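Our preliminary data section would be incomplete without showing what the modeling component actually yields. Below, a chain of 217 amino acids is followed by its predicted structure, encoded as tokens that our downstream tools consume directly.
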Amino acid sequence: MARTEDATLELFRSVPVIPVVVIDDASDSVALARALVAGGLRIIEITLRTAAGIEAIRRIAAEVPEAVVGAGSVLTPATAVAAEKAGARFLVSPGTTGLLRAAFEATALPCLGGAATASEAMVMAEAGFTFMKFFPAETSGGVAALKALGGPLPHLTFCPTGGIDVQRAATYLGLPNVACVGGSWITPADALRERAFDRIEALARAAVSLNDARPRR
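Predicted structure:
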């Protein structure tokens, strides 16, 4: 588990923001991924909240090799298996049940399980996961909560997601226990609907500039 955790943390620290994408039409996925990569964000989380999610992952994995595409909103072991078969290179969940944690332990893929409280984070840490998703970030206490968790749990690192925009992202990234943030503002629904991929590329470039908010490591 330790080597997997190190690799997971290294992967997610390579960018300040992970685009959290809700896509309705898989035919848009390749152009979307290319726009994000061109903007400097190569790690892309395609959520499985829509029927297009698995197919979008499959297309990006096959046609945009420079992207690191993963599956978000993974809720069951079966979904984790389906996402991996489609070409997902990492898995993300909003929370972490016992069955899902076991599925994460069984795969070689980087996995980012969700936690919203100290107890949930400690349960994951007992299983060997020291890097996790903090979700839903804003309604779970936001920056103040993560600062508080950093006191008794300094060995844990988080990717806060949920309710974060470009302004809030900089504050989160300034915390020593935050590796990156997840955000849907980079791929807004109207831009996807209008296929405004140039706008998405510009939003990705702006997100990359948030590197300046991160503490030196």
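The chain has ten helices and nine strands. The chain has one domain: 2-211. Preliminary results of this kind motivate Aim 1 of the renewal.
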